[in-house]
C-alpha cells in the first residue's frame, strides 16, 4: 500500500513493452544520426522541424526508460540486474551526444534564426530553446571531444557518483549492539531523547571511517573532471558554468549570498537560545541541531498525513488538492524507509504519463508531513510545466524549489495556526527555524565548502582529513558561535550526494534561492489572495523557457537587487524573534 507503483511505466525488464521501447530507442537514435548526416541536403525549415520532433520523441522515450530503472534502483540500490540495465541505457544515451552536438552547431550557424522562428507557430513555441541553443554552441568542444567526454563520464564521474550513493545507502552503522543503515541512524537526530541523539551522532561519525578514503578519491575525481571540462568549454570556472546553466546572472547570485551573510547573526541568536534551553553553554552541538522542542510529540499515520495535506492544499486551489489526492490514490509515493533504499526524499517527473513519483522516508512526525508536502509541490510544478512541449520542460536548479517550498509553507503555516498551546507553537516555529537554518546557514556552508574544494583541487589532492578540515571551516564561517566548535559535523561532505555530480556543481545555493523566492511569492499570495493563484500557475509553466530574471519579473520581483532578498529573509527573522519571545 505504501510503495509506489511503477507498472504504468513497465512491468519488468521482460515486459514486451520494455523490449519494444528499447528497440524503438535504437531506431530513433539511428534516425537521428542519419538526419544529421544529411542535414545540408534538407531545407533549413524542414530539417529544423524534423530534428525537433525527433528530439521530442526520443526525449519522451528516454524519460520512460530511464525513470523506470532509476526509480527501481532508488528503493533497491544494489539490484544488479537494474544496475546493468542503467549501464545499458547510458550507452544508448551516449550515442545521441554526436547528433545533439551537431544539431546545436547547425542551429548556431543559421542566418536569420529570428526570421525562421517567426515563420512557423511550432518554432515560436521553441523560441527560447532555439535561441538558447544558438548561444550554447559557443561553449561546445569539437564533435569528437564531446563524444569522448560523454563516453569517459561513464567510467569516471558517473561511477564515482553512483559509488557515493551505493556506499552511503548500504553502510552498516554499529548502534546499541546491532547494525542499522545510515538513513535510520540519521533519523535519530530528531529523537526526543538527548542520549539517543548524541549516541546516534557518535555512531554516525565513526561509521564514516569505513568509506571516507574512497569517498575522498571520488569527490576529488569528480571535481577535477568538472574543472577540466569547464575550462575546455570556455567557462571561467565551474561556478560560472553553473550560473550559465541556471539561467542566473552573477549579479543575482551576489545579491543572494550577501543577503544570506547579513542574516547570519539572527540565526546564531536562535541557535544559541536553543543551545541554552537544552543545557549547552558553548553553543549548540551538531547532534542537537534537530532536537525537537516544545510539545510536538504527536505522531501521524500516513492516512492522517495525506488528509492533512489535502485539506490545506485545497485552501490554495482545487487543482493542487486534486493532484495530491491523485498521488495518494494512484500510488505515486514510496513512503517508508527500508534496507537498500535511498535516504532523503525526491520527486521525479514522468512527462509522457503526466505523472510524478515521490520518494520519502516517512517516520510519522510533522516534519515528515512537511517533507511530503514539499515533494508534492515538485509534482505540482510538473503538472503545470507539463502543459508545455517536452523540450520546454527543463527548468534550472534555482527555480526547482519554488513550488515545493511554497506547498511546504502552506502546510507549516496551517499547522502553526491550528496549534492549541504555547508549547505546540514553540515546537512548530522551532521546526520551521530548523528548516530555514538548513537552507540558509548550512547551505551557505556547503557553498563555501564546494568553492574551496574546487579552488584547492586544482593544485593539491584533498584527502579525507583535509576535506574534514575544509568542512569544519565552512561550518564555523556560517554557524559561528551558534554551534559548539567541538561538536561539528566534519564528515558531512561524505553524506551529501549533491557534491558527487559532474553535471550539477554547486547544488546548494539553489535551495536558498528557492526558499527565499518562494517566501516572496507566498507573501504576495497572502496579500492578493485567490486572484494571485493563476499568476503562480503561469509562472510555474514558463520556468522552462525564460531566464530567472525574467521569470521573477513576471510577478514584479527583481532578483538582482539585494533589497528583495533582504525582505524575504526578514520573514525568517520574524520567526526568530517569535521563537525568542516564546522561549523567554
Would you write up a description of this structure?
The chain is mainly α. The chain has two domains: 16-155, Butyryl-CoA Dehydrogenase, subunit A, domain 3 (Up-down Bundle); 159-171 and 211-330 and 365-584, Orthogonal Bundle (Neurolysin, domain 3), CATH 1.10.1370. It has helices at residues 16-37, 44-74, 80-94, 97-109, 113-118, 121-125, 127-136, 143-155, 157-170, 182-187, 194-207, 212-232, 238-245, 250-277, 302-313, 318-329, 366-385, 397-400, 402-418, 422-457, 464-479, 492-495, 509-528, 533-542, 548-553, 562-582; strands spanning 172-175, 178-181, 333-334, 346-350, 355-359. Strands 3-5-4 form a three-stranded mixed β-sheet, sandwiched between helices. It has a two-stranded antiparallel ribbon with strand order 1-2. β4 and β5 form a beta hairpin. The protein is globular and about 75 Å long. The two termini are 45 Å apart.
Task: Please count the helical segments.
Answer: 26
Q: Hey, roughly how much beta strand do the residues contain?
A: under 5%
Backbone CA Rg: 24 Å
Relevant CATH superfamily of the largest domain: Oligoendopeptidase f, C-terminal domain
Distance between the termini: 45 Å
CATH class of the largest domain: Mainly Alpha
- Quick one: how many beta strands? 5
Number of domains: 2
> Based on CA inertia axes, which overall geometry fits?
globular
Based on secondary structure, the structural category is mainly alpha
- Pick out the low-confidence regions: none
What CATH architecture label of the largest domain applies?
Orthogonal Bundle
Amino acid at each position: 500500500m505504501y510503495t509506489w507503483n511503477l507498472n504504468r511505466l513497465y512491468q519488468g525488464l521482460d515486459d514486451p513493452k520494455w523490449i519494444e521501447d528499447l528497440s524503438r530507442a535504437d531506431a530513433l537514435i539511428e534516425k537521428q544520426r542519419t538526419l544529421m548526416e544529411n542535414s545540408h541536403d534538407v531545407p533549413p525549415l524542414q530539417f529544423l522541424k524534423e530534428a525537433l520532433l525527433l528530439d521530442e520523441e526520443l526525449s519522451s522515450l528516454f524519460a520512460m526508460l530511464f525513470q523506470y530503472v532509476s526509480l527501481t534502483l532508488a528503493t533497491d540500490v544494489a539490484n544488479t540486474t537494474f544496475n546493468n540495465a542503467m549501464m545499458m541505457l547510458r550507452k544508448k544515451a551516449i550515442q545521441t551526444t554526436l547528433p545533439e552536438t551537431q544539431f546545436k552547431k547547425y542551429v548556431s550557424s543559421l542566418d536569420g534564426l529570428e526570421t525562421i522562428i517567426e515563420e512557423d507557430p511550432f518554432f515560436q513555441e521553441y523560441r527560447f530553446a532555439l535561441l538558447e541553443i544558438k548561444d550554447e554552441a559557443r561553449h561546445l568542444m569539437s564533435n569528437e571531444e564531446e563524444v569522448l567526454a560523454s563516453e569517459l563520464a561513464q567510467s569516471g564521474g558517473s561511477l564515482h557518483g553512483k559509488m557515493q550513493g551505493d556506499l552511503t545507502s548500504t553502510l552498516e552503522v554499529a548502534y546499541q549492539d546491532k547494525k542499522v543503515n545510515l538513513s535510520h541512524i540519521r533519523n535519530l537526530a530528531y529523537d526526543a531523547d538527548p542520549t539517543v541523539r548524541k549516541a546516534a551522532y557518535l555512531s554516525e561519525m565513526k561509521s564514516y571511517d569505513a568509506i571516507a578514503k574512497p569517498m575522498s578519491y571520488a569527490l576529488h575525481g569528480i571535481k577535477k573532471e568538472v574543472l577540466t571540462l569547464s575550462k575546455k568549454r570556455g567557462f571561467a570556472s565551474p561556478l560560472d558554468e553553473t550560473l550559465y546553466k541556471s539561467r542566473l546572472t552573477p549579479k543575482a547570485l551576489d545579491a543572494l549570498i550577501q543577503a544570506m551573510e547579513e542574516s547570519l547573526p539572527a540565526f546564531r541568536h536562535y541557535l544559541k537560545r536553543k543551545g541554552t534551553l537544552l543545557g549547552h553553554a558553548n553553543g549548540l552541538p551538531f547532534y542537537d541541531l534537530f532536537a525537537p522542542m516544545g510539545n510536538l510529540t504527536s505522531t501521524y499515520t500516513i492516512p492522517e498525513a495525506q488528509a492533512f495535506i489535502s485539506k490545506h492544499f485545497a485552501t490554495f486551489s482545487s487543482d493542487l488538492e486534486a493532484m495530491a489526492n491523485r498521488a495518494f490514490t494512484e500510488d505515486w509515493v514510496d513512503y517508508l524507509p527500508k534496507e537498500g533504499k535511498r535516504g532523503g526524499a525526491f520527486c521525479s517527473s514522468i512527462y509522457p504519463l503526466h505523472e510524478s513519483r515521490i520518494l520519502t522516508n516517512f517516520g510519522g512526525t510533522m516534519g515528515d508531513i512537511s517533507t511530503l508536502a514539499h515533494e508534492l509541490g515538485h509534482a505540482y510544478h510538473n503538472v503545470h510545466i507539463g502543459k508545455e512541449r517536452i523540450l520546454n520542460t527543463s527548468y534550472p536548479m534555482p527555480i526547482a524549489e519554488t513550488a515545493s517550498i511554497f506547498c511546504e509553507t502552506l502546510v507549516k503555516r496551517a499547522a502553526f495556526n491550528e496549534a492549541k498551546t504555547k508549547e505546540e507553537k514553540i515546537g512548530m516555529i522551532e521546526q520551521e527555524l530548523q528548516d530555514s537554518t538548513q537552507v540558509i546557514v548550512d547551505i551557505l556552508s556547503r557553498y563555501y565548502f564546494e568553492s574551496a574544494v574546487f579552488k584547492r583541487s586544482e593544485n593539491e589532492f584533498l584527502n579525507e582529513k583535509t576535506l574534514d578540515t575544509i568542512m569544519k571551516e565552512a561550518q564555523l564561517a556560517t554557524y559561528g558561535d551558534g554551534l559548539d566548535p567541538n561538536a561539528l559535523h566534519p564528515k558531512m561532505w561524505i553524506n551529501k550526494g549533491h557534491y558527487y555530480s559532474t553535471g550539477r556543481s554547486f547544488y546548494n545555493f539553489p535551495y536558498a534561492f528557492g526558499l527565499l523566492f518562494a517566501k516572496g511569492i507566498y507573501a504576495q499570495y497572502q496579500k492578493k489572495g485567490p486572484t494571485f493563484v493563476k499568476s503562480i500557475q503561469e509562472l510555474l509553466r514558463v520556468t522552462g523557457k525564460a531566464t530567472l530574471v525574467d521569470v521573477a519579473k513576471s510577478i514584479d520581483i527583481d532578483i538582482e537587487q539585494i533589497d528583495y532578498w533582504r525582505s524575504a529573509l526578514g520573514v525568517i527573522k520574524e520567526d526568530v524573534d517569535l521563537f525568542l519571545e516564546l522561549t523567554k
